[in-house]
Write a structure and sequence with these properties.
Helix content is about 0%, strand content about 45%. With about 130 residues, it is mostly beta strands.
Length: about 130
């Protein structure tokens, strides 16, 4: 099965940027729709962004829309999350997740629920603070 490992987290000042990576192994990345989630202390894990298997369609949650950009490079078995204009409320553990490829039609049909994802990484800490 596919294994996922996140990297790129760290400490950044408000307004700064980070680029997270998620490396997949064991199975071709193109078999999966890939998503990013985050979980802040005391809160439930929340959906952030998702990219279709080919990288041509994406969908992002309102809190990060316009600031975060998801992308993927299937040849390198890697999915990315470019995070700009970071805010203290963005502080959380960030997870990548994989959902078995399925027909979705358009970006609106991409999976956004935790239960729709079968495989998860261990997470990487992002801290936004002065």
């Amino acid at each position: 099965q596919v294994q996922l490992v996140e990297s790129g987290g760290g400490l950044v000042q408000p307004g700064g940027s980070l680029r997270l990576s998620c490396a997949a192994s064991g199975r071709p990345l193109s078999l999966y729709i890939m998503g990013w989630f985050r979980q802040a202390p005391g809160k439930e894990r929340e959906f952030l962004s998702v990219v279709g298997w080919s990288g041509d369609i994406t969908y992002s949650a309102d809190p990060v829309k316009g600031r975060f950009t998801i992308s993927r490079d299937n040849a390198k078995n890697t999915v990315f999350l470019q995070m700009n204009d970071l805010k203290p409320d963005d502080t959380a553990v960030y997870y990548c997740a994989a959902a078995l490829r399925r027909f979705v039609g358009t970006a609106t049909g991409l999976p956004k629920s935790l239960s729709q994802y079968e495989f998860w990484g261990q997470g990487t800490q992002v801290t936004v603070s002065s």
